[in-house]
From TrEMBL:
Species, as recorded: Thiomonas delicata
GO biological process, one term: cell division
NCBIfam families documented for this protein: pilM
Record PANTHER family: CELL DIVISION PROTEIN FTSA-RELATED (PTHR32432), ETHANOLAMINE UTILIZATION PROTEIN EUTJ (PTHR32432:SF3)
Organism superkingdom: Bacteria
Name of protein: Putative Type IV pilus assembly protein PilM
Length: 359
């Protein structure tokens, strides 16, 4: 039996997840073993020059391509197929309800008709896709369909970056969807398997922080705020008279004066915790909810010492820094010590890599 099960086991084409963010590019490659357990095969990060990407827009194409090439070389991957993500700000998404007996080509017609009603630019300039989510809970006999639309040039920007670096784009996702996919595996490890828990997921990036409030795999609320790790770099530069580049390098290398924690880091953590608590208050005002069960943190700034404790203190809510590779086997090509420090930065790229097994 073991021979036949290995012969007929589903094989997935190799695929890497590539997250192009404002401060770095990140790569993840995953595999599944015979018991459908994940193995992290490769993970790597390569920083981007300041200004290469601004507000999700690629401003310095060649610099980003060069960074992706360096990333591929650093990771050692031979895989060419890649899943990429657009920033959520570049995508309009909407859930619609359609009759459950429609064929795929009929759904396509309905989706295009619906898209025309809410997309603020010409349909010929739009990249449009949809996903059938399943039966509608509120309308028996109907099905829920998720529509996603973006300007075609935004999609082409990501595609051309990947192709110029020698990769073959197979999937264009949305960064928030990829993050939610990776976080979902970890939410299932919470009490009750995460069932019916209200979870606030914060991804703290370089220049902005995104918030999704999740329950049972659905996003109930989302919000972006313009604060992130760059504010810490700016505070370091102001306090010590460094240039922005010097401040960033010293922050990355933990090469800062003895009074850094008290004079710069602790005030920054206090301010960031207050921003996250304020974001939760917006959610509470907009919905019938008055609390969340867990706060999950991801992104390069999430692991700052003292941040979890300060957020817990301000919100009276359990707070956890996410490691998207928790519970996975770690391949021989991965440096575990370095991975532990960088793990929260990989949430989106991990979700993109997981798309390999959902095609």
């Amino acid at each position: 039996m073991s021979i036949f099960s290995s012969m007929f086991r589903k094989r997935y084409a190799p695929l890497i997840g590539l997250d192009i963010s404002s401060s770095s590019v990140k790569l993840v490659e995953l595999a599944l073993d015979d018991q459908n357990r994940y193995t992290l095969v490769r993970a790597a990060i390569e920083p981007l020059e300041k200004g290469a990407i601004t507000d999700g827009n690629i401003e310095k194409h060649d610099d980003v391509v060069d960074a992706v090439r360096r990333l591929i070389k650093k990771s050692g991957t031979k895989t060419k197929n890649v899943a990429l993500a657009l920033p959520s700000s570049a995508v309009i998404s909407k859930k619609i309800v359609l009759p459950g007996d429609l064929r795929e080509e009929e759904i396509e017609v309905q989706v295009e008709t619906e898209a025309n009603q809410y997309i603020p630019f010409a349909i010929e300039d739009v990249a449009l896709d949809f996903s059938v989510l399943g039966p509608s809970l509120n309308s028996p006999g109907d099905q829920e369909v998720l529509i996603a639309a973006s300007r075609r040039d935004k999609v082409l920007d990501r595609q051309t970056i990947a192709e110029a670096a020698g990769l073959k784009p197979q999937i264009i996702d949305i960064d928030a969807f990829a993050s939610r996919l990776a976080a979902g595996r970890l939410i299932e490890r919470l009490p009750r398997g995460g069932h019916d828990l209200l979870v606030a997921l914060f991804e703290i990036g370089a220049s902005s922080t995104s918030m999704q409030v999740l329950r049972n795999g659905e996003t109930l609320y989302d919000r972006d705020q313009t604060f992130g790790g760059q504010q810490l770099t700016q505070a370091i530069a102001r306090h010590y008279g460094f240039s922005q580049e010097e401040a960033e390098a010293k922050k990355r290398n933990a090469d800062l004066p003895d009074d850094y924690t008290a004079q710069v880091l602790e005030p920054f953590i206090e301010g960031m915790a207050q921003e996250l608590a304020r974001a939760l208050q917006f959610f509470f005002r907009a919905t019938p909810n008055s609390k969340v069960d867990y706060i999950l943190l991801a992104g390069g700034t999430a692991a700052l010492p003292g941040l979890v404790e300060k957020i817990t203190q301000l919100t009276s809510t359990a707070c956890v820094v996410l490691n998207p590779f928790e519970g996975m086997a770690i391949g021989d090509q991965v440096r575990e010590k370095k991975l532990r420090l960088q793990a929260p930065s990989y949430l989106t790229s991990c979700g993109l890599a997981m798309r390999r097994f959902l095609q």
